C-alpha cells in the first residue's frame, strides 16, 4: 500500500514539475519575444497563476540554475529555510543548511544536471520549518532551454515522515504477525505430535483392553472346563469304580464288562480333554514349539485313522483315509496331527451308528485343501456360528451321550492359523458336517 502511494505520488510530482517547467519556459519566451503591452499583461497573469499554484501546494517546490542557486521557490521552501521566497532568489543551500547537508544536496543536483538523469522519489534526511529532522521524498528533474541545453533543475519535496512511521509500524506489526504465525505453526506441530501420540496411546490401550478381554474369556473358558467338563468324566470313573468295588461279587460278568466299558469311555474322555487343555494352555502362553517342515499328509491322516478306529468300531462307524501318499505339505507336523485327531474325534462323536467319516484333500499349486466329512446329525446356522469362538460356550452331547467342550475346535483354529492356513465349517441339520482347512504345499529342498 505504501509502495503504491509512492508510485502515485511520483507521477503527481512529475506532472506538477512538468507544469512548472512549462510555465517557466513560457514565461521566459514571452518575456523576451513579446514587447507589447497586451503580451506583457498575459505574461504577468501567468506568472501570478504560477505563483499562486506553487505557494498553495503544501510540498516544497523550487527551481535552481546550474550553480544550484534558487531562481524560484514557493512559500513552503521559504518557511523551511526561515526566510521569504524573494530572499531565497540567488541563494544556495549553503546559506541555510549545515555544510554536510548542503554538500549532499549540491552533489546530487550537479549529478542530475551533468547526466540529465532525473531523481524520482529519492528518500533523504532533511529539516522541517521547526528544525525537526524529517524524511522527505524528493523528485528533481533537469530543466532545458529551447535548444535542449540543461540550464538548471526543478524539484518538489514532500514530508513522508508520518508515512514512513506508519510503514515502520506496519512492518513491525507484519514481523510480529509473522513471528506469531511461526509460534502458532510450531505450537500446531506440537499439538499434532501430541495428538498422534495420544492416538497411538489410545490405540495401544484399545489393543491392551482387547487382549485383557480375550484373556478374561480364556480364563472363564478354562475354569468352566475344569469346573464342569473335566470333573464329570472323573466323577463317572470314581462312581463306576466304587460300584464295581462294592458289588463286584454280586455282579455277573456281563454287568462287570458294562461298568468297565463305562470306566474306559470316561477315562478316554478325560484323557482327551486333559490333552486338549494342555495343548491350549501352551498356545495361550506361547510355550508351544512351532517347527514347520515338509511331510506326507497321507501318512499323518492314516495314523489318526488307526488311532481312532477303536472308538469308531464301537459305534459301527467307517473311517476312510482318501489322502494319497503323494500329498506333501509344509507345516508343523505335530500341530496338524492334533488338528486331524480332534476333527476325527468330533466326527465320531456326532455320527450315527453305521455312519461314515472321510478324510480327503483337494490339492493345487497354491494351497492344499483338507476336508474331514461325516454324515452325522449336523447342526443349524446358529450353532455353526458359535464354532471356533472362545467367547461363546458351545457344547452338544454326541449321538451316544458323549460330552464335549468345543475346546478342540478352538485349538484346531489356532494351530491352522499358526501355519498360515484357514479353517471353516459347513453343516446342515441332519445332513452331516464338513470341516475344511488349508495348508501350504511342501517347499522344494
What order do the helices and strands come in, and which of them pair?
Elements: H1 2-33, H2 37-56, E1 60-65, E2 70-73, H3 75-81, H4 85-88, H5 99-115, E3 119-127, E4 133-144, E5 150-159, H6 161-229, H7 231-247, H8 253-284, E6 292-296, H9 297-314, E7 318-321, E8 328-332, H10 333-349, E9 356-363, E10 368-374, H11 381-384, H12 407-418, E11 423-428, E12 432-441
Parallel strand pairs: 7-9
Antiparallel strand pairs: 1-2, 1-5, 3-4, 4-5, 6-8, 8-12, 9-10, 10-12, 11-12
Q: What labels would you give this structure?
A:
7-stranded mixed β-sheet, 12 helices, 5-stranded antiparallel β-sheet
Using only CA atoms, what is the Rg?
55 Å
Largest sheet: 7 strands, mixed
State the share of residues found in helices, binned by percent.
55-70%
* Mean pLDDT figure: 81
List the total number of helices.
12
Q: Runs with pLDDT <50, length 5+?
A: 30-35
Summarize the helix and strand pattern as letters: HHEEHHHEEEHHHEHEEHEEHHEE
> Structural class of the helix and strand makeup?
alpha+beta
C-alpha end-to-end distance = 80 Å
Question: How many strand elements?
Answer: 12
Query: Which of globular, elongated, flat, extended, rod-shaped describes the shape?
Result: rod-shaped
